[in-house]
Description:
Elements: E1 8-14, H1 19-28, E2 32-34, E3 37-43, E4 48-54, E5 59-64, H2 67-74, E6 79-82, E7 84-85, E8 88-89, E9 91-92, H3 94-105, E10 124-127, E11 136-142, E12 147-152, E13 157-162, H4 165-168, E14 169-171
Antiparallel strand pairs: 1-5, 1-6, 1-9, 2-5, 3-4, 7-8, 10-11, 10-14, 11-12, 12-13
Amino acid sequence: MxxxxxxxxxxxxxxxxxxxxxxxxxxxxGLDAFCPMIKSIRTWSDRKKTIYKPLFPSYVFVNIQxxxxxxxxxxxxxxxxxxxxxxxxxxATEKEIEGIKSLLSSQNISNISTENLRNIVGQKxxxxxxxxxxLECEIVNTNNLNKIVVKIESLRQCIIxxxxxxxxxxxxxx
Length: 174
């Protein structure tokens, strides 16, 4: 049961290579769905072909207006789950969705791709959760998405931990 459903663009995780199919099913069900697609040229030894592939593989955006819409979208064939960061569902703003649509429709822009946001060495962060909550830290090393070494100046210590970086670290406000 949803405690606090907010209206907006939720990010639906779908089966691999089912993005367009799920998008079409959602549109047929009367939901406002968006699956950003980019043009790509596939090259084989004997030919080239222009194909369209999802900008965000395995993601479809769904504009949810009620709890009925929420569950209707989740029941689409190929839909798996809604993306969450911690306990919060991922919500894209209307401005972000319009920006993506505008970017994709522009004739002057080419070679569009995506990249995951990762912690960068030297970034100043604040720990949001756990026993060190509220302490400022600096990213010293990032071996992969889950292993992070942080320097805690106030304790003059470095902590090495395996943790979910998107949950435990928030941007340090300037």
